[in-house]
Structure formats: structure tokens, C-alpha cells
Sequence to fold (562 residues):
Amino acid sequence: MVMCTVLTVRTMKHLITCCLLLLGWITVQGQSVDELQKQLQSAATQREKLELNYQIAEQLMRTDAETAIEYAKDAHKLAQNLQNNAMLARTAFLTAEGYERERDERNQEVWLKSTLTYAKRAGDSDLIIRSVDERSDLWRKKRNYRRAYEINKEAFEYFSSSGTSISELESQYERQKAQLAREKANLEQERQLLQSEIDRLIEERNQIANERNTLSSEKQQLEAQQDQLVSAKNKVEQEISKKEEALVDLSQQKQRAEEYAREQSEAVKKLSRDTLEKRYMLEEARADLAIEQLKLSQRTSFLRISGIGVASLFLIFLLTYWRFRSKKRSAQELAIKNEIIQQERQRSEDLLLNILPAAIASELKENQKAQARRFEHVSVFFSDFRNFTQISEELSPEELVEELDKCFKAFDHIIGQYEDIEKIKTIGDAYMCASGLTERTTIPYNMVRAALEIQQFLDEYKQVRQRQGKPFFEARIGIHTGPVVAGVVGTKKFAYDIWGDTVNMAARMETNCPPGQVNVSETTFQRIQYRFDCRHRGKIYAKNKGDIDMYFVERERVGAAV
Fold:
């Protein structure tokens, strides 16, 4: 009962405030912007200033959206001071409308989110539904149906808990739920295709292993044949040795025959000369006959042994040549397959190194996981293109992707010249990198140099595009230094990322940076002030951070680079 009374009192307050604003709007509707601005200068109370800032922003919205945004933000700050949730929601929605006209989807999303928060507090169902519709449309344009679904689901749960009927949101919720189911089915189909590819590669690997076993078996057969040939060669050599021993015996018999002939010659010296000559001639003929028989036997044995040797050598040559050709052909096939396997392995390692730092990739390959780590002095770099949505409407999808590819390739080349800078990711037209992701303390000199080089590249490319009469990109760059936690998330399509308030602060530096500038925080400035000329911007308001000191980096001092 008490809660209902409190809600009724709050609702009455909001209704009274809205009525007062409506009366003020009716009063000044016919007045010009100049008259309203004069009244704003002379306004005495914060409520009057709130109403006048709101009216000026509304009138300027169609003609000068950028100035209208500034007046809407001033009205929002006054509503914060007055703790008026209804006006906080209305001024936030008006600011989001201005960013929509400026085609700044990032800031439009931020202010629509603020609208939803304050509209819930104020119980303004109309603004809740309008902000949810706007945010949902933004994410649908980006084809992020899951995020659009979550936004509508959050609104659905809020209205369900408050008892309000929202059949339109419920139907939209069901449509997006069906869209997510279709996306899930497509992902499952892709997973099955990848699994079939993995099975095919495993089958090829098994075939290679079988061929390797076959080659090993053939090698064993050739070695057995070689052993047989060696054994046959040994037998031939043994036969040759026996023949040589026989020749030695024959030579000894010849010598004994000659000695016997000499003995007989001395014995028959007393015989008559004719008888002696006849017997000598007979013995000489017998000796010649024995010698001829011995020569004939030697020639026959030599021819037989030579034929066996030549046949053996020819057989050995044929087997050796066949074995050589087989081994060469098998070696060539194996080398080709090994080269294909090595190329695929190198391709996989290159892809892994393109996604993860070298140390993380090595740890992931060795341990199948990577431990999250905390680093105390990391400099985070954020960049974003101004009027990206407007430029994307002027270019065809192919031209837009080509221009983004040129710029991001140039960014990759620039940071690739510095070993201590690691690219983290790109989100749409946003580019994020970091330095100091090591155990030792580093100073962000190279990070600031890379940021200045990126702005110089974009300025030169802008001049080329202007001469061609084509749209061009201008970037905002923000850098902040502090502690982060880094690690690998996911098991499929995993990614290396960093988390912490340092990342949020770097994003605030980028959001509050004009195009073409490099905006750094106080922490980063303290580390680089002796190497770079910086200009203090004063205290700038950052969302959820309050007023913080910011600095423009203008140039590197002459002679300071090492």
C-alpha cells in the first residue's frame, strides 16, 4: 500500500513537470531561436534554463543537429541537477535523435540506453517503447539479431513484471527468437561441413600411413634378395678359389715332371745319342700334351666361372636398378605428401599467429589452453571513423569494404613496425590495439608514434580522395594506460581479448576526441610528456567518469626519438 502511494506521488510529480514543460513550450513555440537564447541568458532558475535549453534543441534539430545536441546535453545536465527522471529521459532521447541525424550510431546507442534507464525510473512507457524500437532497429541494421532480440526481451520482461500489455513487443520478440533459431541451424550445418572435412583429412593421413607401411615391407624384401645375391656371390668366389688351388697343384705336378725328366736325362747320358734323342722327344711330347691338357682345363674353368660371374653381376645390376627406381619413386611421392602436410601445418600455424600473440599461441599448442594474465601497465588504443554511417550510404558495399580494407591494412602495417604493439580486434569501423602485454614495464612511446603515423596516413589519403571527388574517412583516436586482464575466450572461433576499466577509459578518450587528433589521458600524458609536445584540453566530461583531464598529442619532439 505504501509502495503504491509512493508511486502515485511520483507519477503526479512527473505529470505536473510535464504539464509545466508543455505550458512553457506553448508559450515559446512562436518565438524564434534568438529570442529563446536571450531568455536563456536572463533565466534565473535551473528549471527555466532546463525548459529553454530543451526548446532551443528541439527547434534547431532539423536545421543544425550538431548545435541541437549541445543544447540537449546542457538540458540533460540541468535535469540531473534537479533529479528529474522524466526530463532526463526526454533530454537523453532528444540527444539520441540529434546523433541519429548526424549518423553517429555509436553515440545514438549510448543515449538511447540512457533514455531507457531514466524512462524506467520515470515510468514513461511511451519513451521506453520508442527507445527500445530505436535500439532494436540499430542492431538489426548491423545484422546483429541476437542483440536486438536481447533488447526487446529486456523490455518485454520489464513490462511483464509491471503488468503492462505489450502485444506488439511480444510478437517482435517471437519473430527475433525464430531468427535466432534459424541462425543456430545454419551454424550447426557449418559445423557438420567442417567435421566432414576433418574426417576426410584423417582418412588421407591413414592412407599415407598405409603407403608408408607398404614401402617398409618392400624394403625388407629387397634386403632379403640382396642377402641371397651376396650368398650366391660367396659360393662363386669359393668355386673360383678351388679352381685356383687346382691350378697350383697342376703347376707343382709340372715342376715334378720337369725334375723327373732331368733325373732321367742324367741317368741315360751313357745311352746312345739316338736312343736318348728319341726318349727325350717322347718325354717332351708327353710334357707338351700334359701342358696343353692343363691349359684346356684352365680355359674351360675360366669360361665357366666368367659366365657365372657375368650372369650374377647382371642380375645384381637389374635388382639394384629396380630397387633404386622404386625407392626413388616412393621417395618422391612421400616427399610430395610430406610437403603438402608441412604446408597445411604451416598454414594452420600462420592462421593461429594471425589470431593470437606468439606467446599465447605457443602456450595454447603445448597445454591446449591459455591462462588469463593481469598486466599493470598496458596502453590501449581505440580509433573510430567519423560519419561512417553517412559515408557507407554514399558508397556501394564493395567500395565500402575496399576502403575499410585499405585503411585497416595500413593500420596493421604501421603497428607491425613496433614489436611491443599487439592488434586486439576490429569492430565494424573501430580498431583496437594495445602495448605493454609483457611481464616488463613499458612506456607507450611506440603506441603514440603509431597513432600519429595513422593520422598522417589518413590525412594524406584524404587529400587523394578529395582530388578524386570521393568521400573520405577521418578518425578519432584515444589512448589510456593502466591495468588490464588478457586471455583467450571460447573453444570454437576463439579470440584473444583484454578487459578492465582501462579499456573503458580508452574508449572515452576516443569518444571525446575530434577527428584528426590523438587524445590521451592524464596517466598516458605523465609517461610521454618528455618525448612529445602535448596540449592540455582542460577537464572534459566523460560518461560515468565525470570531468577528467585530457591532452592532445601534437608532435614528437625533435631528437627525442630513439
User: Anything to note?
Assistant: Residues 1-11, 22-30 have pLDDT under 50 and may be disordered. The chain has three domains: 2-165, 203-355, 368-556.
